[in-house]
């Protein structure tokens, strides 16, 4: 057979992902007990034990030199492993693997091809952040590992881990992770004062009429407008909503009016509101009124809440109600009747305002730059590099190498606490500018190959003046 | 600079900004017209003096390169043949002990203490059997179990047909380098990249090979896997200690280049030709040093000295005061030249209190008197010329102040001419006078260097503006330039400074570089 016809082997981007606790099987011969979750599960038992053993050894060895700072990653010729100890003695290990990490060089004379490994293809900060995100997402829906241990011991914990990660890992798209995952920020919807007040009064009214509601969050176009949650909880909830829940439900709105995909709208012409979690059709006598439960932090612990996500056109409201309350059909109908029409109205208001604002600012000229902005204080992020976020892919409009240069600059910034500015010219002649000021970071990619340092600086100054006129950046 | 209208406006609409192909190999042309590859300031006129790394990258592709060079030597090198005969040499130890006074090290340290842990950079060398060979801090005995663990990690990963590279924790990283039959481990709290740390471990590896030859190392461990190599290396640890110190301080090791004593070219030419005239049958390299600075280097036709080998020679000479006591004669392996055999170096100072040190490298172990004779001939010839006086004068100011360049806010710079493998740099200004500050500045340069020479994402230029200084680094096909400005320096100043500095170096190149290297 011609060599060109050989089937190319595609490897998934996650080589392995496992969770262990070294205190669960301290005696020899009991090592398997340490392993709480292992993906892929079909890996042979001894290999699992070996891989966990290596991680334990690496962690232990690193303590010789830094007893207080645990090991975070192991680099080998073929891959990188990321370690995270979210709770005492519980370790999460992730080993991503991408095709771009190795290049096959064909050899003459029928010798097998030489494999060259690209050892700098992966950024530690990005995948370190992804592991932490995995844990946060587990915790959002299940509470801590410790909670499961208290409730039902190792058995319950492994069940929960299996149930959650089996599905969650399939939704990870490691290849498209980048600097935005390091920030884990929230995109805020820009709004005029009047409309903002309307939304706030809407939230107040709903919380007053339905006193069961403890917290509310309001989003438009996948961007946050209002949230009553703690920042860190909102950050992970936002991640869930925008990368998992919303994309799964976006189709019905795009579908035609008579499409079977939108039964709930067909039966209700008063408003466009519908539940994204819980019952799909209130009229259905068989409808179940079960909502996903989430765990958010309180002053000294966490509380369990029902998560109701209700959407009308592009506006989405999240209502959180204590899990100790049982939610009934009556409550849901009341909520639907109250929120549905108002949210529909608000959504069209915001949409109108948005288009007016757009028109005022004039037709957008294709700018000579793309940028990412992040504010550590309020987690606000803004990117003109990422075209759209979906469940499957995060499309960027720049070459992956440029994205990695942004990541490199970010690492540089993270090392010192001072304000800094870095301007680099890549081999492809793109200019990349990074600015760190106070708690804010700005990264700009300029497509002006013949510009010099001074011109690049002027260009970035102009950008700061138009986009961030109230923020001071070190000159 | 370019007018607004001339600016090409490639559109973003075509979906991606992906380059057509990677231009990794191509660097931007020189900023000043007439400065193109090979004619950058400081480039030698005839041919390079020594082999040097064209780029940082070739340190990693080393194994193959070495094998290739060995092959070539096997085939043609008459010299290599002679060297091979010498491999069986057994007397190195005694000879070394004669020529180098072993300075005792005070290494007693509690290896479980916080003080030991918090050293900025640890270096460990062990054998593949896990036996300790060297530790920078503490004693090898106290660390034998730690080193055993290191070896276990290396072998464990190896068993999976993989190679361990590094472990990262916040503010601390561990880097592994396996160079059979040795394993080197670095533990660093600095911000240096893995690649920089590996480069330093490579140097330590070559330092050990230069004492024993790789052939002998392999031979020892093939016969006795469990061999305690410290028995052979006893008394030479200070060389490794010193090399590690240099790695933190000497830009030459970072740039893969050496620097010269500033000297009028007329005087340097006379010194070089005097050295050229004092030749002998087995003489391969004649090197004249002033402290850490090269005065001149004369080599046998077709034989090149790699910058790593040269730095090992510098380290040997700089680490020991015993060469001041008379004429030294020591075997030395130059591993980048040939890892299999020894050269023999005649090392002596021209005058008792002088900084000028002459190193004559011969292939023959019985050549001491011939080399001694060469030195006499060189001295006789040189002392008759006025150039000797000029050279002695030049020793009084072996460096220059950055103020001479006349750029306000410029505090310091490094300039490397790639084709000649030479660099120039002014003395450290007042702000960087303390050891700590100098090491901090070196750290900043190391940072710039590793960003520019990133293995998969190299850069053309890098500008960093921080609260303590502004830095600019620029690589072209001809040179590498690193500038350090005060935090008051603007970008406009930085841009104009580059042009001004390159012009100044061009004007001074006769003095700062060796433009016409000689062969016998």
Automatic annotation (TrEMBL), chain A:
The CCZ1/INTU second Longin domain, residue ranges: 213-338
Sections of the chain in a coiled coil: none
GO terms for biological process, alphabetical: vesicle-mediated transport
Domain CCZ1/INTU/HPS4 third Longin residues, every copy: 365-463
One Pfam family cited in the UniProt record for this chain: Intu_longin_1
GO cellular component: Mon1-Ccz1 complex
InterPro entries documented for this protein: Ccz1, CCZ1/INTU/HSP4_longin_1, CCZ1/INTU/HSP4_longin_3, CCZ1/INTU_longin_2
Domain CCZ1/INTU/HSP4 first Longin: 15-143
Similarity comment: Belongs to the CCZ1 family.
Name used for this protein in its record: CCZ1 homolog, vacuolar protein trafficking and biogenesis associated
From TrEMBL, chain B:
Highest taxon, organism lineage: Eukaryota
UniProt-listed Pfam families: Fuz_longin_1 (PF19036), Fuz_longin_2 (PF19037), Fuz_longin_3 (PF19038)
FUZ/MON1/HPS1 third Longin domain ranges (all copies): 409-509
Chain spans, region Disordered: 1-47
One Gene Ontology term from the biological process aspect of the record: vesicle-mediated transport
Record's GO cellular component terms: Mon1-Ccz1 complex
InterPro entries to which the protein is assigned, alphabetical: FUZ/MON1/HPS1_longin_1, FUZ/MON1/HPS1_longin_2, FUZ/MON1/HPS1_longin_3, Mon1
FUZ/MON1/HPS1 second Longin domain ranges (all copies): 281-379
Boundaries of every FUZ/MON1/HPS1 first Longin domain copy: 121-243
Function: Plays an important role in membrane trafficking through the secretory apparatus.
Family: Belongs to the MON1/SAND family.
Record protein name field: Vacuolar fusion protein MON1 homolog
Species assigned in the record: Lates calcarifer (Barramundi)
